[in-house]
Amino acid sequence: METVAFYSYKGGVGRTLLVANTAQFLAMAGRRVVALDLDLEAPGLHQKLADQAALDRAASGELPGAVDALLDALDGEPRKLSLREIAVEVDLPAGTGGSLLLIPAGSAPSHAYWAALERLNNALRSSPRDGGLPEAVLDLQARIAEEFAPDLLLIDSRNGITELGGLATSILADRVICLTTTAPESVEGTRVVAEALHKVPRLSSQQPLRVDFLITRVTSGSRSPNVARVVEELGGSAAVLPHDAAITNAELREGGRLQAGENDTGENLISATLQWIARSFQVQHGD
Amino acid sequence: MTNPDSLLAALTEDELNTLVSIAIRRAEILDETQSPGAADAWSEVMVYEEQLAALTRPEEIPGGVARVGAVTAALAAGRRGDASRLASRYLAEEALPQERKDAVRRAFQEDRERRARSFPALAKSGRLAELDDWRASSAAFDLHVFPRAA
Fold it and tell me: What are the sequence ranges of the domains in chain A?
């Protein structure tokens, strides 16, 4: 199982949407994918991937998720929740060879979810002798590998600098995809975090961490030389996703079910996103 | 502002013994009531025990007790990086009696077993021991930005 964490220093870069689209694309290309929402303070992956029935359960506080699984692990008692009870199967077109399971953060946004998140934070403070967040998230990852044996685990990681974001990008991930816009505050934060990620110790059985960059929401007016400068600042290996660039590819678009964000000019972005995912994960649509 | 290290260094062994007794009782009560303050309370115990260890000889009973106490308090506080740091220092002391060294090693073993019961999938994956090594190397790694995992 390869674990890929999607990270952004600032919010609003299209990270969650990209996780959802990447998960669907790879599943449609025949991969067994699990998408895990670890953006616990502002979860939204279920809004992109889950069906209406699951969204209704979330609204009524009855959709268990990663927060509940972590709480379950930290209470020191035998497991009460199976991951199969938590995972939501995402519908894919008929004939798709792969599969996509979503592990949402929980019933967000609901009062029940915020209460569960508070209990999780209290549990981490009150019983550190039983193990902390590193144990809890690594155990969750091991359970996902054991119960679902996916090819890929895609993590929607919290933005900014947080403990959970640090763990997701340093010891859970084999690869981190850092998203940034061309805004200076976003680029500078991304650069500093990426420098730290290149230095951070790994578990002894892990390979060195691979860090990729993706510049998003690039409008045609800002593409050059602004983008060239950002690419240079990030070390010269960043890919670019356009906001309104004139890129069209009907063949890819027809096969895709990808979504655009509210402010995106959908067709061009979808096409470019598909191409980036295919290139980045070395798959072809219809694999 | 007064340097907290100098305040600690000014305390006598008797004063530290009084403080550590109160701190241990407080930590036990907070532990029992599953209070979020329990970790901080055990951290306080660790600080006093570490200072007591610095003031006492490893071959004498108070010195041995303080060294084992510092390590077990660090583990109870969830400060496993600090526990590893202290254990490395104390286990390297030739004068520390074997029974004390065994107690330090036993504290780590019990800690690992407790976590293995709580996190069976992680234990089965073999990464629990790796995580302890990672903590030790992260503690030595001066990361001011990211990640902040302790």
Answer: 2-280
